[in-house]
Fold this sequence. Notes:
This protein has no helices and 37 strands. With 425 residues, the protein is an all-beta fold. The protein folds into two domains: 3-140, TolB, C-terminal domain (Neuraminidase); 155-412, Neuraminidase (6 Propeller), CATH 2.120.10.30. The protein is globular, with a radius of gyration of 22 Å. The model has no long low-confidence stretch (mean pLDDT 87).
Amino acid sequence: MQEADWSPDGSALAVIRAVGGRYRIEYPIGKVLYQAERGISHLRVSPDGERVAFIDHPLAPDDNGSVMVVDRAGRSRKLTGRFASAQGLAWRRPAGDEVWFTAAEAGMNMALRAVTLDGRQRVILRIPGRLMLQDIAAGGRILAARESSRIHVAGLGRGQSQEREWSWGDASVVLDLSPDGRTVLISEQGEAGGPGYGVYLRKTDGSPAVRLGGGLGAALSPDGKWVLTVGITTAQLVLLPARAGEPRPLPRGALEHFQFATWMPDGKRVVFSANEPGRGSRIYVQDIAGGAARAASPEGADLVAHTVSPDGRWVAALDPDRKLVLYPIEGGEAGAVPGVEPGEFPLRWSSDGRSLYICRTGEMPIRVHRVEVATGRRELWKQLVPRDPVATFFAPLIHATPDGAYYAYSYNTILCELYLVDGVK
Length: 425
């Protein structure tokens, strides 16, 4: 169970639960009203107890999303289009005629907005910085937080003896590190990235970043000539040239909600997570020369970062129960990885294919272990501690070169102030 909210009379709970790799809203507990392939957040029961409002995040863990509502009969409606960042939601009380929420059309600086049940929207309040709605009292007073947030990129590159900062804009997320430790792939997801984000390459020597195009960066090709990206607005995989050239969209077929993606070692195929409409997420393999994608896992499985083995036989991923397993890319039985604890994520394989680098989300400092896939023997590879004491980590956004000599990671710094606000209408 991930989130919950009481009905007005306190007799029932609405909850968000992850089951079999999908997310669903139950109200009351046990009665499924809505299911999604990715993320759901900020559910709130209406003042009359007849509806549940929530935010649907089709690219979770990214927080872009749309405000939706579902009634007790399971009839759902999308009230807004997709915002670049959407967090915080509450019903206007006591009327219940509007859903108030905080969201940003681009970047991360959210404003307080309202939407009626027939989809009419208005902006209520903007402030400098990021505003997040917490709750609305019956008299109209709101509880809101003002956040100052930045996402950073740091790490150790070739020829360096200590960590350096490689951030470019206000929300720089690292998606890959070249095998020689000289180049980082950055997805700029804040104000500097613009609508649909921006994809950048930056040398680890600190030279200026180079913008390649829009979208969410995923991985550098083995030969360094292409960058695999996920188009935020087009909802498909796109190859961006690392130098001169034209973008190459890959056929999407009936798939939607593309997530983590990476390259096969041969550089001729890509591996990614997506789903068919109304189905759970699966891992797919697709030839970049053309043709349809082929499923390589059962429903509910999710790829995480760069987890295709060096020989191209296995992909380390999370199964429907969020456990780390190895799926054979060419078909066959999946295998468990001994020595891996619940809540740990795979980051990448070692260069010899015998071990996986893994970490756990929510730790500070974060400890990355190297685990032998055959025996489960584990050893601490690196303990990462950002210089800023208020930092929080984005796992699994930690990338290392195959030999483990160089690495890059993203972390977030957030300063938050809580306010009671009167007179907002």
